[in-house]
Amino acid sequence: MKLYCLSGHPNKPCNVVTFKSVTLMLDCGLDMSSVSHFLPLPLVASHRLGSLSTWVPRDADSQLEGELRECMSRIFIDSPPEIGPPTSGLVDFAEVDAILVSNYLSMLALPFITNGTGFKGVVLMTEPTMQVGRIFMEELVEYIERTPKARHAYRWKHYLRSLPQPLCDVKGPKTWQQAYSLKDINSALSHVQIVAYNEKIDICGALKVTAVSSGFCLGSCNWLISSDHEKLAYLSGSSTLTTHPRPIDQTSLKNADVLIMTALNHTPMFNPDSMLGEFCVAVAQTVRSGGNALVPCYPSGVVYDLFECLSNHLDNLGLSLIPMYFVSPMAESSLAYSNIFSEWLSSSKQGKVYNMDDPFPHAHLTRTGRLKPFKSLHAEGFSSEYRQPCIVFCGHPSLRFGDAVHFIEMWGNNPQNAVLFTEPEFDFAEALAPFQPLAMRPVYCPIDTSLNFTQARKLISELKPGKLVVPEMYLRPPPSAPHRTDLTLNLEETPLTYSECQVLDLGIHRRLESVKLAPGLALALNLSNIRPGLSTATISAGLHVQDNKYVLKPLEDEDTISKLPNSYPYGNLSVDDLVQRLAQAGLTDARVEELPGVCIITLENEDVIIKISDASTHIICSNTKLREKLRDILLECLSSF
Amino acid sequence: MPEIKVTPLGAGQDVGRSCILVTIGGKNIMLDCGMHMGYNDDRRFPDFSYITDGPLTDYLDCIIISHFHLDHCGALPYMTEMVGYNGPIYMTQPTKALCPVLLEDMRKVAVERKGETNFFTSVMIKDCMKKVVTVTLHETLQVDSDLEIKAYYAGHVLGAAMFHIRVGSQSLVYTGDYNMTPDRHLGAAWIDKCRPDLLISESTYATTIRDSKRCRERDFLKKVHDAVDRGGKVLIPVFALGRVQELCILLDTYWDRMNLKVPIYFTMGLAETANKYYRMFITWTNQKIRRTFVHRNMFDFKHIKPFDKSYMDNPGPMVVFATPGMLHAGLSLAIFKKWASNANNMVIMPGYCVQGTVGHKILNGAKKIDFENRTSVEVNLTVEYMSFSAHADAKGIMQLIRHCEPKNVMLVHGENAKMEFLKQKIMQEFNINCYKPGNGETSIIPVSIDLDVEVSLPLLKHTMALPTSSSSSSSSSSSSSSSSSSSRGNNTEENRTKKQKVLHGVLIMKNNNLRIVGVNEAWGDLGVTAHNLRFTERIEVDETGPVPALTSALHTLLSQKLGSSQVQAVNEFQLSVADSVFINIQDDEPGKTILLSWTHQDEGLGSKLLDIIKSNYKKS
Ligand SMILES: [Zn+2]
């Protein structure tokens, strides 16, 4: 069993595991941190961005002219943004039998794996993962395609050393690629096979894989990969907190031979509950003082909890009339889908359907017009609906594309306004860098519900895996807080670790395989009892293999059967017993001679010598009939199976 | 031989009141708990005293409800709250949402309209539903450590499911009601090739092979259109959820296309309720509706308006969907009484009607219906029957059997004579047993079981590395002819044996756990020592030449017989065969003595060599 790590970002996992001749990819997350080095894509031409001065390194040729621009002494690439797909080259994607996707955040690199690589496997995920994942992917494509750039900058990649920080530190920019297209998404998703929680899926007849609830987001799961004798658990984005998704199923993950754990909390220094509280307070303060609140967000996920908590909070403060706009090409779809996946929600949300209520209160908020979804700023009706102060939820959290770019530009110079960062993935200072100087108030309240280190340690001690495998960086404190040794997975037993582009032998050696015994064969077996509770029989049978499954059937070929031993004698022989039985058979002339370590019986008349020592007997004679007779007498004196 | 026992308490050679008791692998399971719509007395509920007198909790491991129709769940509160059962009840989420709505509806009709006493109460329905555990499609749900169930999509109505039930290696599938063809709002039933020991299938339409759906729909629309054109009123008795949505979609689209203005009504405000459920459970509808639901709700009808009782007396044509579906009570019956005598009017029965209902009577041509309060009504209106029930027809049932490959089939929920016909057809076409027990009758289905054993990986790898054994090899003409005669007439069987590898090892049973290991591994596992049994036979021969000459001649002879790779010369007077049998040649003036030595395990080879040597070097 081997693990190949294809992603250096534990929260954008992409690992490959080989087991029993099956190749499985565990998640294919897309590392989008590269986009922060690019200039934002404004909806309408931005005078400010257009007038940023270009930047050229001293020793570069003139062709680099216009590829880089400077804003407040930070250098940005003026190009359609690029993203870093999982490492290729370590694993041939054509060999992958199945991709197991844990949640919609961990599938965004799918087109890079499945398209044009010879991939012929299946992609397994739950229905919400598929639908919401599609929403994420289509939103990304729409954001990038609706603001096309004439020029694609790439020459800067050859002058990395001449560039200032942080651009000179980026890893492998030559592997970065432009975003995929709608066609790519459809082609990638055509490989998807939908699974339910606790559905046992057969892979190549050799393994069974099962998705179990992980409590992190709508339809999110962890995976169990098992043969008849070994169990591997793969834990990706998981949460033990109570939010809207169905709770995590811990029991199923117990007692695995190997537990691979990844995608722990991005922002372990921040408690998600108190961040949610701070978020509500900050939004209320902003709108109360006449400012607007901008919440850059993804089209699904924590944003549902934000709608619910914020509307309650505003109600309590008598601010129910402040409008909330949800601006995304996928806003309407996201709201609609969230309310049809009740089976995937917490029991309290699920319980609502039995009273004919929608699971999420945002259904009610939209019906009453408090929450208004719009495809974009330019969508029909937005300008007539638009009132200030207001709260706008919109993408993209990186602030490099999507309507958020426009709102920052529009509201940025007013200190009454606030931008609230709830998505943990992007650093807010980084996100805001190309918009500086800004008067708008940034509020950082990252809400990451996934396991923090304390919760992870507790979970590990409960699950008791045979071996634990984690990303290497979980053994070191985060670079932003090098002294916080509590922000590591310090365990009594050091786990196995992996890092990007590494191959790790998981050291599971199989000893047994399951085989079916055909009824006819079972009936023909002659079991002999060795001692109570232990019996045994010699077995010769035909082994048949179909779809990697083994069946033993009776042998029909007499010739083959006759060549194989049909019994095995064991233990010591009693000389007295043998002599007695020989006499009963008419062989009365046995002469017994005891020598050190050996006893010799001679049958003078028949020209036979029998040598007996511990655990062995040797018959020497010159008459076949007699030998067979002696053999049978001897076997009567011995136990055998 | 293990067996599966099945006893229908309802739906045995009958439609309605589905309730089937199953014992599999020592587990007792009740499949559905329905009521009979045709009766108002004791026969309405299954006879639970068959199981025991008194509470049933100790006698059942679980109850499984296939869908919300009352002939499948109508007796549930009676059974759990009045007879007594506290164990788990499994059903899908939509069934859990809709089941109490229909139960409450029925309770109201029984208690408030008919004045029945000793009926279950609203509180009992609520308490009963608290015992329900929901199952998701395709999830393997562990009832206990031995019993697992898995639900599959059944079409038929919103939330309907088929159930695969497994205990160890024994399994059965219960279909409930199902539909093998997709329709306007639901998808088709689907199950994987799970090869159960027993398939228990409904057979409502056991002998019907329905004409194309398109024809039926066109026919329906034409009849409705003709009736309203001549100024008649059309009554369509329906159940609140299910077929009615299908017909509403159909009629609404048609009205739109033909630009008709005649009003269509739907009773009881149920349209809105139903609509809401459909929106929440959209994942249970068909592909098309699921794909478009964000922008278009198929259940928002343009032409269909809510009905008020007073409209019954309105003049002019109209179309009314009214509940319940079999004209056995409620508003549909009230409207029927009002409209029945007018020959201009029409009633369309879109589904099956059980015996005892007014629906059943008029479908059988009754011209006058008598009611309990000594009133009666002349049946002058046109009575039409159109099979819009979403049940599998004979073709669909055969298709399901073909698809899941059961080892036995049992038919329930059908009419006896029709079932008999289908039973013969199934036995002929699939060459498997088919059962159709009546109520209270027990069928015992023997099942064969494959034993699961663990094989040590070294032994398995060793076996797989061996050359493939071929049963029709030329080595022994007598044995090959016997083996080919035993498998004659079964070509595939012979082909399969040709691909086999020969595994030889030791099977060890330790505390009922079976394991096969190689002989060398076995000794340690068993804690005993092998007893090494060796034989040496002396063969005196007349050969007079030097010893090495005889050694060499023997080498040549045995190589011819066994293949040269098997025979090795150790030195001038010794040979070894297959590294296990040794031959020693001694000079024994004037002849020679050949010593042949082998162990008990090589008895086969040893005696074969003995035969060869003796027949070639006979001492005179
Ligand atoms: Zn039904």
UniProtKB/TrEMBL annotation, chain A:
InterPro entries linked: Beta_Casp, Integrator_9su, IntS9-like_C, Metallo-B-lactamas, RibonucZ/Hydroxyglut_hydro
Localization in the cell: Cytoplasm; Nucleus
TM region(s), chain numbering: none
Domain of life: Eukaryota
GO biological process: snRNA 3'-end processing
Domain Beta-Casp: 303-432
A Gene Ontology term for the protein's cellular component: integrator complex
Keywords: Cytoplasm, Nucleus
Gene3D superfamilies, per the entry: 3.40.50.10890, Ribonuclease Z/Hydroxyacylglutathione hydrolase-like (3.60.15.10)
Family: Belongs to the metallo-beta-lactamase superfamily. RNA-metabolizing metallo-beta-lactamase-like family. INTS9 subfamily.
Matching PANTHER family: INTEGRATOR COMPLEX SUBUNIT 9
Protein name stated in the entry: Integrator complex subunit 9
The organism of origin for this protein: Penaeus vannamei
From TrEMBL, chain B:
UniProt-listed SUPFAM superfamilies: Metallo-hydrolase/oxidoreductase
Cited InterPro entries: Beta_Casp, INTS11-like_MBL-fold, IntS11_C, MBL, Metallo-B-lactamas, RibonucZ/Hydroxyglut_hydro, RMMBL
GO molecular function: hydrolase activity; metal ion binding; RNA endonuclease activity
Any one biological process term the GO annotation gives: snRNA processing
Transmembrane segments: none
Ranges for region Disordered: 466-499
CDD domains: INTS11-like_MBL-fold
Gene3D superfamilies: 3.40.50.10890, Ribonuclease Z/Hydroxyacylglutathione hydrolase-like
Residue ranges of domain Metallo-beta-lactamase in the record: 16-209
Segments forming domain Beta-Casp: 244-362
Cofactor: Zn(2+)
Stated name of the protein: Integrator complex subunit 11
Organism: Penaeus vannamei (Whiteleg shrimp)
Lineage: Eukaryota, Metazoa, Ecdysozoa, Arthropoda, Crustacea
